[in-house]
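Please decode residue identities from the backbone states below.
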């Protein structure tokens, strides 16, 4: 069996460099520079489509096989959190931390690039490597797609680290694996009044409070209980003085779902509930509803290829089932255009250090599994380009 220890050391070193200097969405300039430098050393050509992305391509020299294009994606941005891991590679940037594993995704894809650059003669076709910025805000992907990121691509593949899965296990789930999400903001307007004479005006705060409760009935009474969905109001702003009825209240939140058709239904329902609740208290309402991300839906055929790739890496069936996540991913935009799959790589070695959830200030992971993540990137591309499967 081939020794991948040097590759593992490389991936961990790259991950720790990125982890020490995390960058928020859209300003990943240091990370972009590092990726470009590593690709240059591997003699892999690259380009930039928008601002902080890197798009690289490796073309196989084999003549018999599929002349198609496989896209492998990693995200690069960090989160606005203050790290509390106390590791030697902890963030050196106050208030910014890689708490979602994007540093490891980038490092794994660079590891895959290193492997692929050394085996061009065993595949035909093209493998496109996308180092994507701004996944956390979802603000860049559509621009990259409009600028040609997915042009000519036949399938897409991504890995996300998962602290809820034991190290050495992976989750490959056909169909929805992550939820779609829509954002909303509801503005309630009343006339206000002095607290001593509430009958002379209308109370936007009281109206908003009733609406915050009423909106939960959209999920519990209008959606099939076997259809997962959740409505969250994360911000409620109202009032200026303790003795005045508020003239305005603003409720902001989001809705998560797996059935994309629910997006339009929720828009209508929120407007209906808001208008009727406001009218009941002699106020008015205005709803701003913003579709954000579709559910992340894995193509079943691509999952079969991913499972074959995983078997080639681990040499055994290491699949682990788990419920689809109500979190969201802008990789859904890739999958809405091209068939593909996002898989989840277990990074929990059983210690407290690696058991913290994503987006937590103490989040860390079992770095020993990352080398197999790189190999999985590579093997998915090779399995696809081999043409052994019925490709969708």
């Amino acid at each position: 069996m081939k020794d991948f220890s040097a590759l593992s050391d490389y991936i961990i070193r790259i991950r720790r460099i990125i982890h020490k200097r995390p960058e928020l969405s859209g300003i990943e300039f240091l990370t972009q520079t590092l990726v470009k430098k590593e690709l240059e050393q591997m003699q892999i050509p690259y380009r930039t489509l928008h601002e902080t992305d890197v798009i690289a391509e490796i073309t196989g020299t084999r003549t018999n096989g599929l002349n198609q294009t496989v896209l492998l994606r990693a995200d690069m941005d960090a989160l606005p959190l203050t790290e509390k891991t106390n590791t030697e590679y902890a963030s050196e940037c106050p208030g910014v931390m890689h708490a979602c594993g994007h540093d490891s995704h980038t490092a794994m894809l660079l590891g895959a690039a290193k492997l692929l650059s050394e085996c061009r003669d065993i595949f035909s076709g093209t493998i496109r490597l996308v180092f994507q910025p701004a996944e956390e805000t979802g603000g860049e992907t559509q621009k990259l797609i409009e600028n040609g990121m997915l042009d000519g691509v036949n399938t897409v593949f991504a890995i996300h680290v998962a602290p809820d899965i034991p190290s050495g296990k992976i989750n490959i789930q056909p169909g929805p694996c992550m939820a779609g999400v829509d954002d909303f903001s509801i503005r309630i307007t009343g006339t206000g009044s002095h607290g001593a004479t509430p009958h002379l005006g209308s109370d936007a705060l009281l109206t908003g409070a009733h609406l915050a409760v009423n909106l939960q009935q959209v999920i519990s009474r209008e959606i099939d209980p076997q259809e997962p969905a959740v409505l969250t109001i994360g911000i409620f702003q109202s009032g200026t003085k303790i003795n005045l009825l508020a003239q305005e209240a603003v409720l902001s939140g989001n809705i998560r779902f797996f059935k994309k058709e629910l997006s339009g239904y929720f828009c209508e329902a929120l407007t209906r509930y808001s208008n009727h609740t406001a009218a009941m208290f002699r106020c008015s309402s205005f709803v701003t509803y913003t579709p954000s991300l579709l559910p992340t839906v894995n193509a079943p055929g691509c999952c079969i290829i991913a499972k074959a790739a995983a078997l080639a890496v681990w040499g055994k069936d290491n699949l682990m089932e788990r419920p689809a996540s109500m979190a969201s991913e802008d990789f859904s935009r890739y999958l809405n255009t091209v068939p593909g799959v996002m898989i989840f790589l277990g990074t929990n070695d059983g210690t407290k250090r690696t058991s913290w959830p994503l987006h937590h200030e103490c989040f860390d992971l079992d770095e020993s599994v990352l080398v197999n993540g790189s190999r999985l990137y590579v093997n998915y591309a090779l399995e696809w380009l081999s043409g052994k499967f019925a490709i969708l």
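Observation: The longest helix spans residues 262-280.
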